[in-house]
Amino acid sequence: MFFAAGFGTRMGALTNSQPKPMIPVAGQPLIDHAIAQMAQVDRKLANLHYRPDALETHLHARGVQTIREFPDILETGGGLRNALPILGDGPVFTMNTDAVWTGTAAATQLLRAWDPEKMDALLLLARPSQTRGHTGGGDFEMDTSGRLTRGRGAVYTGAQIINPIGIDQIAEPAFSLNLLWEKMIARGRLFGTYHDGLWCDVGHPKGLAIAEDMLAGQRHV
Ligand SMILES: Nc1ccn([C@@H]2O[C@H](COP(=O)(O)OP(=O)(O)OP(=O)(O)O)[C@@H](O)[C@H]2O)c(=O)n1
Ligand SMILES: C[C@](O)(CO)[C@H](O)COP(=O)(O)O
Fold first, then answer.
1. Is 5 in the pocket of ligand 1 (CB under 6 A)?
2. What is the ipTM, given to two decimal places?
3. Residue 7 in contact with residue 41, Cβ under 8 Å?
């Protein structure tokens, strides 16, 4: 599932007439960079809310189903729950649509490390040295077994596998995935694995040039 409903307010004028996933980076809209990270996944779905029309056409042309959040936007956790009737039971990849990447595709890396016996979610993380354009600091600490707690040492890249057990028990219609992660941390079942390349946060306008430099550097190696 691609999260593509957000207002993209930090992008300022760039999201006046288009949603953030349609902003081009290195000749491709951000959503295509995200789709490339999930190329091996057969069934793809995106949630839409802000300026959905052109994005929906774009996604359908790439074989990605869409679900509109209407009338209210639901946040990431609420958006995932809203999509479960289409996604079905069991673990799902989720992916934010405001980053670019070098290295092995996110889906490949996550599948290699996924262990449903001990994990309720597995997050793809970056060490601060692997991040570009990211000013927010880290989100988690990872122990030697890969288990996560809250902290500042590891940055969430926006890609994960999550088994949304317990999502139906949350009362609010709109809620962040962070709420589910907190419950998983309490159960000792939130895990991470480190990305093997670079990752650039393109949630804000300065990220666009930084992302293009990062990708150009990769091509010139
Ligand atoms: N209600 C929301 C909020 C966010 N997202 C998605 O979740 C990811 C992370 O969103 P974030 O950057 O936190 O919010 P945006 O609305 O995208 O941007 P901004 O913070 O600048 O408003 C993005 O892929 C965004 O489209 C979403 O699907 N639904
Ligand atoms: C969890 C998240 O996707 C991390 O990038 C994001 O912070 C959640 O956004 P929400 O708007 O709080 O649902």
1. yes
2. 0.92
3. no
